[in-house]
Amino acid sequence: MKLDYIIVGGGYAGLMFAHQLIKHKKSFVIITDGRKSASEISAGVCNPVVLKRFTSVWNAQNEIDAVLDNFKEIKSYLGENFVINEHLVRIFHDKTEQELWLKKSNKDDLKEFLNTDLIKLKSVKNEFLSAKVNHSLRINVTSFFNAFYEYFEEHHLILKESFAFEDLDMQNMTYKDLEFENIVFCEGVHVNKNPYFFDIPVKGNRGHSMVISSDTDIDPYIIKKKFFLFNTFKNHFFVGGTYERDETSSEINQDSVNKLKAGLEEIFDKSYNIEEVNVAFRAVVPDRRPIVGSHHKHQNMFILNGMGARGVMNSNYFAKQLFEHIEHGTPIFPEVDIKRFK
């Protein structure tokens, strides 16, 4: 079988690149080992503001526009709208932080995003009030991945296996019994085991999140103080996630769970049960930019990695940019080009 593309990796990057191939009627197969990626347990929040310092996110509006465009296109063949138009609402820690928000809302790069109307949330503690982030939203993560994987299965587009590098022949452009024109690696932190790209500076940033249940309602927002809190379905709520830069164990850590509980209980005084705890590693890069481009030796081998904590936004925008680069020679932003490490 001869294919236009092989995609390796089934997180946001792999799926959004697959969307470009479906949209442009390219033949492909996606190879994934079936393990839950960091993407699959993420909050799926699209947020144009760094909420710790109230600074703008690089390329934010372009990326949010790409999310809306791509998910509109995805709805045409998956039959479902995965975009949830809930605003992110930031709870202020104190009066000083509230005043900083209002001051920064006058800056050119933030005035479109920082809403100056202060609001009082009813379901959580917010003594110093809260404010919305304009143009924020989230993706129904579970439904999105389930529907996309069902589509892959139905159309025979997926191989559920660990990628065997010993079976990859770049001289003849074959993988096992598959011939291909291009191969794109979207492996996240597993790129460290890729013999072609192992030396790029992708590190794992461990994150814990949990799903709780509670017989209560919360305000219809993505609520954020220390962690995100939002309703997922029928009195179930997402809480997370932690950022643990120097941790390497993939086991659930009780100290991390305790941090989630403490952060939740700082604003949420209702009784709750922990239904599920998840842990995974985000693929992050020291300069906080994705890594996109071709291998220095094999010009038909590409990478789409380092999506980080803003996986939905980065993958939507840069999957399209990589596709257009491969097919039409469109330049890759120098800020994300893999060549910056050479």
Short summary of the structure?
With 342 residues, the protein is of the alpha+beta class. The chain is built from six helices and 20 strands.
Word description of this protein:
The protein has helices at 12-23, 60-78, 95-104, 141-154, 254-265, 311-328; strands at 2-8, 28-32, 45-46, 49-50, 55-56, 83-84, 88-91, 130-133, 137-139, 158-160, 168-169, 174-175, 178-185, 203-213, 222-224, 228-233, 236-240, 273-284, 291-294, 301-305. It has 342 residues and is of the alpha+beta class. Helix 1 (12-23) crosses helix 6 and helix 2 (60-78) crosses helix 6 (311-328). It is globular, with a radius of gyration of 21 Å. The mean pLDDT is 97.
